[in-house]
Amino acid sequence: MPSFIAHYKSLDSSEDRARGLFEFQSESRLGSKGNAHDARIRMLEVFGNQALSWTIEKIERKPQKEERLDGQLELDFRAPVKKKRKRKREYW
């Protein structure tokens, strides 16, 4: 199931202004009503009643992780391959 990141904010008139982001999963496409609905439901599950007045500003796709082993650089210890030189043609 694809993962998304939703950015939320509270109303400007409220005393406790909240801004932040959270991660959720949805089967719906990015930008669809189903995706926005899934984000809203997840926000209410995570933050409870205090999130009733919050709005979701933006939803974006979560970037895929690159698989690396322990964050180490990959070194190549193989011997270098000698390139064959192109044969020189001489015209007489």
What is the structure about, briefly put?
Helices cover 16% and strands 23% of the residues. With 92 residues, it is of the alpha+beta class.
What would you call the quaternary organization? single chain
Largest beta sheet: what is the strand line-up? 2-1-3
Helix content: 10-25%
Helix/strand-derived class? Answer: alpha+beta
CA gyration radius, whole angstroms: 26 Å
Description:
- It is built from one helix and three strands, in the order E-E-H-E.
- It has one helix at residues 33-47, and strands at 3-9, 19-25, 55-61.
- It has a three-stranded antiparallel β-sheet, covered by helices on one side.
- The protein is elongated and about 90 Å long.
- The model has no long low-confidence stretch (mean pLDDT 86).
Please tag this protein with its features.
92 residues, alpha+beta, 1 helix, 23% strand, elongated
Give the topology, please:
Elements: E1 3-9, E2 19-25, H1 33-47, E3 55-61
Antiparallel strand pairs: 1-2, 1-3
